[in-house]
Amino acid sequence: MSGPTLGQIIRDLRARKGWTLKEMSEQSGIPVSTLSKVENGRLTLTYDKLQQMSARLKIRMSDLFAEVDPQVESITARRSIGRIDDAVRVTTPNYDYYYLCPELRRKRMIPIVTRIAAKSLNEFGDLVRHSGEEYIHVLEGSIIVHTEFYDPVALKAGEGIYIDSNMGHAYVAGEDCEEAVVLGVCSSADEGLINSLMNIHGPDDEAESERKARPAA
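Below the sequence we write its predicted C-alpha coordinates.
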Protein backbone atom coordinates (compact mmCIF):
# COMPACT_ATOMS: atom_id res chain seq x y z
CA MET A 1 0.00 0.00 0.00
CA SER A 2 1.21 3.56 -0.66
CA GLY A 3 1.67 5.94 2.22
CA PRO A 4 -0.77 8.63 3.29
CA THR A 5 -1.33 11.62 1.06
CA LEU A 6 -0.31 15.16 2.00
CA GLY A 7 -3.95 15.86 2.85
CA GLN A 8 -4.14 12.91 5.21
CA ILE A 9 -0.88 13.91 6.89
CA ILE A 10 -2.11 17.46 7.46
CA ARG A 11 -5.49 16.21 8.71
CA ASP A 12 -3.77 13.83 11.15
CA LEU A 13 -1.44 16.58 12.33
CA ARG A 14 -4.39 18.89 12.93
CA ALA A 15 -6.22 16.14 14.83
CA ARG A 16 -3.20 15.52 17.08
CA LYS A 17 -3.06 19.23 17.89
CA GLY A 18 -6.80 19.36 18.48
CA TRP A 19 -7.12 22.27 16.05
CA THR A 20 -10.02 23.30 13.88
CA LEU A 21 -9.31 24.24 10.28
CA LYS A 22 -9.43 27.90 11.32
CA GLU A 23 -6.89 27.31 14.09
CA MET A 24 -4.65 25.36 11.72
CA SER A 25 -4.89 28.26 9.28
CA GLU A 26 -3.92 30.77 11.96
CA GLN A 27 -0.94 28.67 13.05
CA SER A 28 0.34 27.83 9.55
CA GLY A 29 -0.59 30.99 7.64
CA ILE A 30 -2.33 28.87 4.97
CA PRO A 31 -5.89 30.00 4.12
CA VAL A 32 -8.73 27.86 5.46
CA SER A 33 -10.09 27.22 1.96
CA THR A 34 -6.67 26.00 0.78
CA LEU A 35 -6.25 23.68 3.78
CA SER A 36 -9.70 22.24 3.21
CA LYS A 37 -8.95 21.50 -0.45
CA VAL A 38 -5.60 19.91 0.45
CA GLU A 39 -7.16 17.71 3.13
CA ASN A 40 -9.79 16.53 0.64
CA GLY A 41 -7.24 15.75 -2.04
CA ARG A 42 -8.34 18.53 -4.41
CA LEU A 43 -5.19 20.65 -4.15
CA THR A 44 -1.53 20.31 -3.26
CA LEU A 45 0.86 22.88 -1.78
CA THR A 46 3.74 24.58 -3.56
CA TYR A 47 7.25 24.20 -2.18
CA ASP A 48 7.27 27.64 -0.56
CA LYS A 49 3.97 26.90 1.22
CA LEU A 50 5.30 23.56 2.47
CA GLN A 51 8.39 25.39 3.69
CA GLN A 52 6.22 28.04 5.36
CA MET A 53 4.07 25.42 7.07
CA SER A 54 7.06 23.46 8.38
CA ALA A 55 8.69 26.64 9.72
CA ARG A 56 5.58 28.03 11.41
CA LEU A 57 4.52 24.68 12.88
CA LYS A 58 8.13 23.90 13.85
CA ILE A 59 8.22 20.54 12.09
CA ARG A 60 10.56 19.12 9.47
CA MET A 61 9.34 19.54 5.93
CA SER A 62 10.02 15.83 5.40
CA ASP A 63 7.31 15.16 8.01
CA LEU A 64 4.80 16.40 5.45
CA PHE A 65 5.59 13.49 3.15
CA ALA A 66 4.57 9.86 3.50
CA GLU A 67 6.74 7.49 5.51
CA VAL A 68 7.67 3.97 4.49
CA ASP A 69 7.56 1.17 7.04
CA PRO A 70 11.13 -0.22 7.00
CA GLN A 71 9.86 -3.65 8.06
CA VAL A 72 8.07 -4.08 4.75
CA GLU A 73 10.45 -2.06 2.58
CA SER A 74 11.30 -5.03 0.38
CA ILE A 75 7.63 -5.58 -0.52
CA THR A 76 6.12 -2.14 -0.21
CA ALA A 77 4.28 -2.41 -3.55
CA ARG A 78 4.21 1.38 -3.47
CA ARG A 79 2.50 3.16 -6.32
CA SER A 80 1.96 6.81 -7.14
CA ILE A 81 0.49 8.37 -10.27
CA GLY A 82 2.60 11.27 -11.53
CA ARG A 83 0.21 14.08 -12.41
CA ILE A 84 1.32 17.67 -13.02
CA ASP A 85 -1.65 19.03 -11.08
CA ASP A 86 -0.50 17.07 -8.00
CA ALA A 87 3.17 17.96 -8.31
CA VAL A 88 5.08 20.22 -5.92
CA ARG A 89 5.99 23.18 -8.07
CA VAL A 90 9.09 25.34 -7.66
CA THR A 91 9.12 28.40 -9.91
CA THR A 92 12.14 30.55 -10.76
CA PRO A 93 12.62 33.17 -13.50
CA ASN A 94 14.35 30.64 -15.76
CA TYR A 95 12.75 27.34 -14.73
CA ASP A 96 9.52 25.71 -13.62
CA TYR A 97 10.19 22.49 -11.69
CA TYR A 98 7.38 19.97 -11.13
CA TYR A 99 8.33 17.38 -8.50
CA LEU A 100 6.12 14.39 -9.25
CA CYS A 101 4.66 11.84 -6.82
CA PRO A 102 5.20 14.15 -3.81
CA GLU A 103 3.21 12.00 -1.39
CA LEU A 104 5.93 9.33 -1.37
CA ARG A 105 8.77 9.81 1.08
CA ARG A 106 12.29 8.35 0.80
CA LYS A 107 11.96 7.73 -2.90
CA ARG A 108 14.91 5.96 -4.48
CA MET A 109 14.25 8.04 -7.60
CA ILE A 110 13.03 11.63 -7.82
CA PRO A 111 11.04 12.31 -11.04
CA ILE A 112 10.96 15.94 -12.15
CA VAL A 113 9.39 17.61 -15.18
CA THR A 114 11.14 20.90 -15.92
CA ARG A 115 10.36 23.79 -18.21
CA ILE A 116 13.65 25.42 -19.20
CA ALA A 117 13.65 29.04 -20.32
CA ALA A 118 17.31 29.94 -19.61
CA LYS A 119 19.19 30.36 -22.89
CA SER A 120 22.75 30.66 -21.60
CA LEU A 121 25.00 29.82 -18.68
CA ASN A 122 24.85 33.47 -17.66
CA GLU A 123 21.11 33.10 -17.13
CA PHE A 124 21.49 29.68 -15.51
CA GLY A 125 24.21 30.69 -13.05
CA ASP A 126 26.89 28.43 -11.57
CA LEU A 127 27.03 24.75 -12.51
CA VAL A 128 25.13 22.67 -9.95
CA ARG A 129 26.24 19.56 -8.11
CA HIS A 130 24.40 17.12 -5.90
CA SER A 131 24.74 13.51 -4.82
CA GLY A 132 23.80 10.57 -7.02
CA GLU A 133 23.15 10.17 -10.73
CA GLU A 134 20.47 11.46 -13.08
CA TYR A 135 18.91 10.90 -16.46
CA ILE A 136 17.42 13.77 -18.47
CA HIS A 137 15.13 13.11 -21.44
CA VAL A 138 14.02 15.90 -23.77
CA LEU A 139 10.25 15.95 -24.31
CA GLU A 140 9.86 19.24 -26.20
CA GLY A 141 12.29 21.59 -27.92
CA SER A 142 16.02 21.11 -27.51
CA ILE A 143 18.63 21.69 -24.82
CA ILE A 144 22.35 22.28 -24.46
CA VAL A 145 23.93 20.21 -21.69
CA HIS A 146 26.97 21.78 -20.01
CA THR A 147 29.11 19.58 -17.78
CA GLU A 148 32.29 20.14 -15.83
CA PHE A 149 34.53 17.70 -17.71
CA TYR A 150 32.97 17.47 -21.17
CA ASP A 151 32.25 19.78 -24.08
CA PRO A 152 28.63 21.02 -24.32
CA VAL A 153 26.29 18.65 -26.14
CA ALA A 154 23.01 19.45 -27.92
CA LEU A 155 20.00 17.17 -27.44
CA LYS A 156 16.68 17.32 -29.28
CA ALA A 157 13.27 15.87 -28.44
CA GLY A 158 13.51 12.10 -28.00
CA GLU A 159 17.14 12.17 -26.86
CA GLY A 160 18.54 11.97 -23.35
CA ILE A 161 21.69 11.96 -21.25
CA TYR A 162 22.79 10.04 -18.15
CA ILE A 163 25.35 11.74 -15.90
CA ASP A 164 27.10 11.62 -12.54
CA SER A 165 25.29 14.36 -10.61
CA ASN A 166 28.37 15.11 -8.49
CA MET A 167 29.91 16.56 -11.65
CA GLY A 168 29.02 20.20 -12.21
CA HIS A 169 26.20 20.42 -14.76
CA ALA A 170 23.62 22.75 -16.27
CA TYR A 171 20.81 22.49 -18.83
CA VAL A 172 19.78 25.45 -20.99
CA ALA A 173 17.28 25.75 -23.85
CA GLY A 174 18.65 25.25 -27.35
CA GLU A 175 19.14 28.14 -29.75
CA ASP A 176 16.25 26.93 -31.94
CA CYS A 177 13.55 27.15 -29.24
CA GLU A 178 12.27 29.62 -26.67
CA GLU A 179 11.56 26.96 -24.08
CA ALA A 180 12.30 23.27 -23.61
CA VAL A 181 10.53 20.63 -21.53
CA VAL A 182 12.51 17.74 -20.05
CA LEU A 183 11.83 14.79 -17.79
CA GLY A 184 14.54 14.18 -15.23
CA VAL A 185 15.00 11.22 -12.90
CA CYS A 186 17.50 11.71 -10.06
CA SER A 187 18.69 8.87 -7.85
CA SER A 188 20.85 8.85 -4.74
CA ALA A 189 21.38 6.97 -1.49
CA ASP A 190 21.23 10.36 0.22
CA GLU A 191 17.81 10.69 1.91
CA GLY A 192 18.20 14.46 1.79
CA LEU A 193 18.35 14.53 -2.03
CA ILE A 194 14.88 16.03 -2.44
CA ASN A 195 15.75 19.00 -0.21
CA SER A 196 19.08 19.46 -2.02
CA LEU A 197 17.33 19.53 -5.39
CA MET A 198 14.62 21.95 -4.28
CA ASN A 199 17.20 24.34 -2.88
CA ILE A 200 19.47 24.38 -5.96
CA HIS A 201 17.23 27.02 -7.52
CA GLY A 202 14.97 28.05 -4.64
CA PRO A 203 11.65 29.80 -5.27
CA ASP A 204 12.04 33.39 -6.39
CA ASP A 205 10.36 35.90 -4.08
CA GLU A 206 8.43 37.37 -6.99
CA ALA A 207 7.56 34.10 -8.67
CA GLU A 208 3.90 33.33 -9.17
CA SER A 209 4.15 30.14 -7.13
CA GLU A 210 0.42 30.17 -6.34
CA ARG A 211 -0.81 30.12 -9.91
CA LYS A 212 -2.29 26.89 -11.19
CA ALA A 213 0.27 24.50 -12.66
CA ARG A 214 -0.01 24.46 -16.42
CA PRO A 215 0.40 21.13 -18.25
CA ALA A 216 4.09 20.49 -18.85
CA ALA A 217 3.83 18.06 -21.70
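The longest helix spans residues 6-17.
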